[in-house]
Amino acid sequence: MDKNEKLHNIRHTFAHLLAMAAREFDPNVKMGIGPVTDDGFYYDFLFTKAPTPDDLKSFEKSMRKFINQKLVMTGREITTEEGVKLFASQPFKMELLHEYAEEGKILTAYTLGDFTDLCKGGHVTNTSEVHADAFTLTRIAGAYWRSDEKNPMLTRIYGYAFETKAELGAYETMLEEAKKRDHRKLGKELGLFVFSDLVGAGLPLWTPKGTILRELLNDYVWSMRKKKGYQKVTIPHITKKELYQTSGHWDKYSDDLFKVRTREDREYAMKPMNCPHHTQIFAAFPKSYRDMPERYAETTMVYRDEQSGELSGLSRVLAITQDDAHVFCRENQIEDEVFIIWDIIDQFYKTFGFANLRVRFSRHDPEHFEKYLGTTEVWKKAEDAILSLMKKRGVTDYIDGKGEAAIYGPKIDFIAKDSIGRTQQIATIQLDFNQPLNFNLTCTNEKGEKETVVMIHCAIMGSIERFLSVIIEHLGGNFPLWLSPIQVAIVPIGEAHYAYAKQVSDMLEEKDIRVKLMHDNDSLGKRIRNVKLERIPYTIVIGDEEVGNKRVTLESRDNGKIGQLSIDELLARFAKEITDKAR
Ligand SMILES: [Zn+2]
Ligand SMILES: [Zn+2]
């Protein structure tokens, strides 16, 4: 049994223990479902008298009591009749029971101590296999039965659970650290982006500082693409409905589309992705095999209608800036083009200290083929191509992402581990044989025949908003020199030092260094504290000595005092650190 399965079984067992504690708290409790989550478990209940957060301690206590009783977990298949008897007093269980029976599923019941639950299994066999101090109940929330607001509102109790107390402790420490680094908090403290009630949730507005970050990141991606023959293109943000009817988005993507009606009563939509527009640039002029590949890049916003409850900071927004690119190529060019993108992804993420990216092969879900464009033959071809590319690239240990494909094709998704150990999905490369067919995208081959081309979709950052949320937290707001909206703070100690400080500031600005001259009525101590709060990479303090010898005393945010330098030494040091994109 692998570690994941073991953890799953432990967490699932805790869900049963929680149900037993709930029954002890309220003998008439009605039970919903109790699944495993990424960090523990939850169980939904309908209480006659709902518990308060203070009651969770007594729930934990009774769970520990049951654990210490070394209870045995046994499971067995049951008939519908047996189930009806077993769960007569449990209306939610009865509903599931009848539904499973109708679907022809095998019914199983699991018993722990004297508590029997309708459950498909995956537990430890004895509560001595779970640790009484490796779990904690975390919070109470409301949840509609089966997530449907027409159904009763149940009380959901969440818990964390791990194999050992140490693992639980490490997880809680990580959460504490994540809270300190929360990009919503840091974004506000550092003045990078704001939200306005008038503009609306999910629509971040970027301040001058935040805009510097966005543009520097985008320039970096572009500098790598430019060397590889990419060209910039520009498209409008809306389109006639017909474009998306042809692409297939109008049917398959309809719920997420922002639709716009014109004064002439025609239907338009805000673009949720850029590919359909880009195909029309490709298709506008006849292409020969000599023109291939064509590589279009465009950093632009797309719009997706998300439920307002799902919006969160920069992680989930309605207007998403993609550093998007589409490569139109022939089948025999796929490998070269994918590997070019793969190299860019590796280099870009290495810059931020994300090494050893993991790869997920995101393929279609064969049981829900209706969600996708195209035929099974075309999907097989695209997925086989991706598998062979991964193999050539030496990727043997990949995550199987069944059902994670885009609607038009399979993807290679890249997963990074951030500085506090969380996994983040980052870049993606998508292979698309479907849209070229829908839009009849061809080139004339060596024999003078029309040949359908292939599209490769790739965004290096994915969305700038999400990428920034990831790196703000990964770096704890401490941007490296090249990326920092303000690179150097200059702090004159007193009024007598201002003139030289201003001179230094002008010399740095002349070399495109982003400087903040901290000259106001605040005390020296307060100004130094502000530099720290703003997480400015370097501080130059100027006093009598510096004015006298025309040098500067440099201090680094990350490495402490550096000492006195001449202006030339200072500029050379900054120039190198910026060019190297040093961390
Ligand atoms: Zn179970
Ligand atoms: Zn695309």
Brief digest:
The protein is α+β, with helices and mostly antiparallel strands and 583 residues long. Bound molecules: zinc ion (2 copies).
Q: Name the CATH class of the largest domain.
A: Alpha Beta
Indicate the structural class.
Answer: alpha+beta
Q: What number is the mean pLDDT?
A: 94
Point out poorly predicted stretches.
none
Largest sheet: 8 strands, mixed
The domain count comes to 3
Binned, the helix content reads: 25-40%
Q: Name the ligand types.
A: zinc ion
**Straight-line distance between termini:** 40 Å
The fourth-level CATH homologous superfamily of the largest domain is Bira Bifunctional Protein, Domain 2
Instruction: Tell me the CATH topology of the largest domain.
Output: BirA Bifunctional Protein, domain 2
* Strand count: 27
Q: What order do the strands of the largest sheet run in, or round the barrel if closed? A: 10-14-15-22-19-18-16-17
Strand content: 25-35%
Please compute the radius of gyration using only Cα atoms.
29 Å
Annotated CATH architecture of the largest domain: 2-Layer Sandwich
Helix tally equals 18
Seen as an oligomer or otherwise, the chain set is single chain
Choose one word for the global shape: globular
Structural features, described:
The chain has 583 residues and is an alpha+beta fold. It has 3 domains: 3-170, Threonyl-trna Synthetase, Chain A, domain 2 (Threonyl-tRNA Synthetase, Chain A, domain 2), CATH 3.30.980.10; 187-352 and 429-475, 2-Layer Sandwich (BirA Bifunctional Protein, domain 2); 488-579, Rossmann fold (3-Layer(aba) Sandwich). It has 18 helices and 27 strands. The strands form 7 sheets. Strands 10-14-15-22-19-18-16-17 form an 8-stranded mixed beta sheet. A 5-stranded mixed beta sheet has the order 24-23-25-26-27, sandwiched between helices. A 4-stranded antiparallel beta sheet has the order 1-2-7-6. A hairpin with a 5-residue loop joins β20 (442-444) and β21. α1 (3-25) packs across α2 and α6 (183-189) packs across α14 (464-475). The longest helix has 23 residues, at 3-25. It is globular. The mean pLDDT is 94. It binds zinc ion (2 copies).
